[in-house]
Amino acid sequence: MTGRSIVALLVALLTASPALGQSPAPAGRIKLVGGMAFVVHEGQRIPAAVGTPVYEQDSLATGADGRVGITLRDDTRLSIGPQTTIEISRFVYAQSDSQFAFVLKVVQGVVAYVSGHIAKLSPDAVRLETPSAIIGVRGTRLVIEAGR
Description:
Structural class: mainly beta
Helix content: 10-25%
Oligomer: single chain
Number of strands: 12
Strand content: over 45%
Radius of gyration: 18 Å
Largest sheet: 12 strands, mixed
Number of helices: 2
Number of domains: 1
Shape: globular
């Protein structure tokens, strides 16, 4: 291939695939914040605020007086209590492709979970992890306390 052919091929690939240069869609957004709370996104600690997007691989942490409420794109709801750290390890909600996955790691603290559409459409795609257990979800509400 000549240099011109390679450039033409690269341009064709980039224009045919608009998703290549786009940011991923957030997994959800913060709906409620009280006290000290942070989102760790790509290594940066960001103060949590109502409307802050939360992405796959983000962590959230609260201080002694912190509380955070999150609604994910599939309508899963998470309420995070004081002195809690979680990570949204995996989040895929692509109804058009029937691809679903949600993995939540509760590192420490207390989290209330209300299942959304992923748990209803593909129960095996939801996994809640703690330091000592892995929980499979079948469409439910529960509270997890870890590492206290």
